[in-house]
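Sequence, please.
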C-alpha cells in the first residue's frame, strides 16, 4: 500500500470519527450538528482542528466532574440551610414561574430584605467598591472576567492591599484569559506579597492538550463581589476604566451596576465559593456561607456614605442565577425566554451582543405580535464585527413583528438589562447571545421591585435618547451584498 493511500484511509477514519462525535454531541440544535459535519467534511484537516477547538462545549471531563462534585457537596451539606424558605408573599403569583425556573438551576429561591443602589456610572461603581473594601471587617471576595492594571484596576488592588494589612481576608479570582495582563503584571505580585489570596480560573495551559481535553474558549465571564456576607454587586462592569484598552477607540464603555445589601449576597457568595473551590480545591469554612455576625451587618449598613444611604431602597425580592457549561443546558436561555414571554405591557432589553437562539428570538417576536411594547437597545459600536453582522440579520424579522430597535451611538453600550411591565427585571453579566447561553459562566440577578425597575427603565430611556431608531424602511434598503454578509454570519453562529 502506498503512503498516499495510507494517509487517505487514515484521513477518512478521522473524519468519520469526528462526524460521529458531532452527530452524538448532546444538547445541540440539528442545524449546529449539520454545520459542523459540513465543515469537517469540506475543509480537510483544518475543519477537524476547528471542531476540536470550538465544536464541543466541554471544559474537560476531569474539570466538569470535580465542579459537579464540589457543587453538590456545598449545596447539600451546608448552604441549603440559608435558602430553604418558601417564595415570599411579596412576589405576585404571575411571576412565580420565573423564580421557579431560576430555582431549577442553582436551587436558590427569591429572598427579600435586600437594599439596592443603581450606580450612576463606571467611576461611581469603582469608588463605591473602594469604599466598601475600606470598610470591610471580615472578608472580601472578588471575581472578575477582566481586570486591568489601569487606574480603576489599581484602585481596587490598592484597596484590597489596605484591607489585607488590617487583617481582612481577601480572595481574588480572575479569568485566566480575560485578566491575563493583570496576572503577568507587578500588581499581581504585589497583591500576593500583601497577603491577598489571588488565583486564576480556567487556565489553558498547553493549547494542544486543552483542545483534546476540552474547549479552549470557555471562559468565566462572571462579575461577583461579596463583602462581609452582606454586600454584593451585580452588573456588566469589569475591573477596568471606562476607557479601557484595547477598545478605547470607541471612547467610553457604558455599563450598569447595582449594589445590593442583604440576604441576596449569600447567593452570590455561593457562586464564588463554588468557583473558588474549582480553581483552588480549597474548602472555605462555613462562616463564608451562612454565618453573619450582627456587628458585621450593623457596621456594613452604617458605614456607607450618607449620600449612598439616602439612595438605597429595601425589600427587593431577588434571586441569583448562575449558569455555565457545567450547569443545566440552556439555563440562561430559559431564563431570558421565560421572562420575555411573561411581558404583557412592556419589554425593554439592553444588550451589547445580540445573537439569540431560536426560542429567545421567537419569544421576543411573539410578545411584540401580542401588542406588548418591545424595545431592543443595542450598541452601534462593538468590539466584535462578527456579532454586529450577525445581529443585523435578525432586524427584518424583529421589525416586522413590531419590535422597536435602537442603536446606541458614539460610545460602546455594554450594559445588560431587561425589564418587563415596570415591575420585574434582570441585571448581570450575561449577553443575549449564544456565548452567554452555552459557553460562558455567567451570573445574573432577577428582582421584583417597582422602584428599582423604574430606575433601570429611566437608565434605559437615557440610552434610547442617545440612540438611532432603526426603521423597517432603512432595513429594506440594505443592499443584497450587505444582507448576504449579515446572513452568512448569522448562519455561522451555531458553530459556536
Amino acid at each position: 500500500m502506498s503512503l498516499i493511500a495510507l494517509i487517505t484511509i487514515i484521513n477518512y477514519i478521522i473524519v468519520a470519527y469526528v462526524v460521529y462525535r458531532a452527530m452524538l454531541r448532546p444538547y445541540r440544535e440539528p442545524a449546529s450538528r449539520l454545520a459542523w459535519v459540513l465543515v469537517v467534511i469540506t475543509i480537510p484537516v483544518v475543519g477537524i482542528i476547528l471542531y476540536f477547538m470550538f465544536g464541543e462545549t466541554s471544559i474537560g471531563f476531569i474539570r466538569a466532574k470535580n465542579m459537579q462534585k464540589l457543587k453538590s457537596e456545598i449545596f447539600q451539606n451546608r448552604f441549603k440551610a440559608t435558602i430553604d424558605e418558601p417564595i415570599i408573599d411579596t412576589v405576585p403569583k404571575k411571576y412565580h414561574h420565573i423564580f421557579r425556573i431560576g430555582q431549577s438551576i442553582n436551587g436558590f429561591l427569591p429572598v427579600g430584605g435586600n437594599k439596592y443602589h443603581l450606580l450612576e456610572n463606571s467611576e461611581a461603581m469603582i469608588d463605591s467598591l473602594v469604599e466598601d473594601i475600606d470598610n470591610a471587617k471580615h472578608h472580601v471576595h472578588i471575581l472578575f472576567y477582566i481586570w486591568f492594571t489601569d487606574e480603576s484596576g489599581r484602585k481596587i488592588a490598592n484597596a484590597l492591599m489596605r484591607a489585607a494589612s488590617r487583617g481582612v481576608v481577601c480572595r481574588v479570582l480572575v479569568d485566566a484569559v480575560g485578566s491575563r495582563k493583570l496576572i503577568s503584571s507587578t500588581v499581581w505580585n504585589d497583591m500576593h506579597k500583601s497577603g491577598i489570596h489571588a488565583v486564576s480560573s480556567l487556565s489553558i495551559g498547553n493549547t494542544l492538550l486543552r483542545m483534546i481535553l476540552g474547549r479552549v474558549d470557555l471562559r468565566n465571564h462572571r462579575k461577583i463581589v461579596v463583602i462581609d456576607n452582606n454586600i454584593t454587586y451585580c452588573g456588566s462592569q469589569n475591573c477596568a476604566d471606562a476607557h479601557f484598552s484595547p477598545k478605547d477607540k470607541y471612547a467610553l464603555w457604558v455599563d450598569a451596576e447595582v449594589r445590593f445589601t442583604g440576604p441576596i449576597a449569600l447567593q452570590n457568595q455561593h457562586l464564588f465559593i463554588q468557583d473558588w473551590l474549582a480553581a483552588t480545591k480549597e474548602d472555605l469554612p462555613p462562616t463564608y456561607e451562612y454565618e453573619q455576625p450582627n456587628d458585621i451587618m450593623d457596621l456594613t449598613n452604617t458605614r456607607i456614605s450618607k449620600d449612598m444611604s439616602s439612595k438605597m431602597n429595601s425589600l427587593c425580592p431577588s434571586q441569583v442565577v448562575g449558569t455555565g457549561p457545567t450547569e443545566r443546558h440552556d439555563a440562561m436561555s430559559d431564563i431570558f425566554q421565560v421572562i420575555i414571554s411573561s411581558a404583557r405591557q412592556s419589554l425593554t432589553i439592553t444588550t451589547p451582543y445580540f445573537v439569540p437562539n431560536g426560542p429567545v428570538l421567537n419569544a421576543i417576536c411573539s410578545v411584540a405580535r401580542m401588542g406588548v411594547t418591545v424595545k431592543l437597545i443595542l450598541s452601534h459600536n462593538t468590539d466584535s464585527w462578527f456579532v454586529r453582522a450577525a445581529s443585523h440579520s435578525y432586524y427584518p424579522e424583529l421589525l416586522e413583528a413590531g419590535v422597536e430597535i435602537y442603536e446606541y451611538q458614539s460610545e460602546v453600550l455594554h450594559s445588560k438589562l431587561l425589564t418587563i411591565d415596570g415591575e420585574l427585571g434582570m441585571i448581570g453579566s450575561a449577553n443575549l447571545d449564544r456565548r452567554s447561553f452555552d459557553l460562558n459562566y455567567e451570573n445574573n440577578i432577577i428582582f421584583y421591585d417597582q422602584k428599582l425597575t423604574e430606575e433601570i427603565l429611566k437608565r434605559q430611556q437615557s440610552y434610547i435618547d442617545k440612540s438611532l431608531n432603526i426603521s423597517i424602511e432603512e432595513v429594506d434598503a440594505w443592499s443584497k451584498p450587505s444582507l448576504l454578509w449579515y446572513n452568512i454570519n448569522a448562519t455561522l453562529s451555531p458553530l459556536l
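The first helix runs from residue 3 to 24.
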